[in-house]
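#structure-requests
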Amino acid sequence: MKDNQSRPRNPRTLAVHAGTRRSQYGEVSEAMFLTQGFVYETAEAAEARFLNASREEFIYARYGNPTVAMFEDRIAAIEGTEDAFATASGMAAVNGALVAMLKAGDHVVAARALFGSCLYILEEVLPRYGVEVTLVDGTDLDAWRAAIRADTKAVFFESVSNPALEVIDIRAVADLAHGVGATVIVDNVFATPTFSRALELGADVIVYSTTKHIDGQGRCLGGVICGTQDFVRKVAEPYLKHTGGSMSPFNAWVMLKGLETLDLRVRAQAEAAERLARAVEGHPKLARVIHPHLASHPQQALARAQMERGGTVLALDLAGGKDAAFRFLNALGIVVISNNLGDAKSIATHPATTTHQRLPDDQKAALGITPGLVRLSVGLEDADDLLADIEAALDAA
């Protein structure tokens, strides 16, 4: 992309053009370099590249690849960070961001309202290697204040929690963490790169499961770590490239194509999600409807301050518990039952028996994961059709 304008480019433009590397053939669509290795003209050239490879030179696909590099540069441009490292999955990004910077004796403070696999890393993996982890109520700033210590190395949280959609005050938590020199790592999946302000609000490292909105069509796994060049290249990259957590070139190409339509897709999905949440709130079959921009949401003002829109996900808590939730799910005609989110297809998930199934009942209750809770990721179908489908399923519940 030629730099022939003085004004900053809009993220929607960056999502189409940033980071493009064209081959000698001048292709319009980004090239897919499906190769695991690269050829050197001479032994001396191989030696020189291994000693000091630049971002334009490649050694092995686990270390870097032209297609993957394009995706990394593009998502960094959209997010506003100096650099990014693409990973094999969203959990590879979470694990890589945490494990790459931590050692035995370090202390981490994290919100307890997290995706089940994130909790596994914090509760099982990190303590196994001598990292002390303190879990707090992420919405309680006094709890963060009490837990963060002079020796805290990192804080970690989801900006909007999965699945109960709690909203964390990024700026306030970042200020507390930076007061002791801790790194702020934010899982920003529900906020999306389109609606995110995490970097501006104080996040140091931002991770995404690109499997979700960035792909947006249920095709490939992927993740990405966005941050400073020092963190990405000196902390995260050495760990990930040696342990095998890097993204494949094919998946990177899919993610590049997803970025081109990301802004358009998530805006349409977010508009529909808020419309559906408002339409069904107060339904007699529902104990509650959760959406960050509803007036009934306890952090609505914070959500509006941190996110331009409330996101593409809402949660419905069926008053009749698990049985009613299952009747509702089984009666859906358009919305599919699965455990992904951010897809073009609307997806309903029962977290208590799927994504958060391993948690003890008391922990589920503390996180707001009731037997009747259904997470609804709104897709690109007609909103009127979705509303009719949901209302019919509620009648069946």
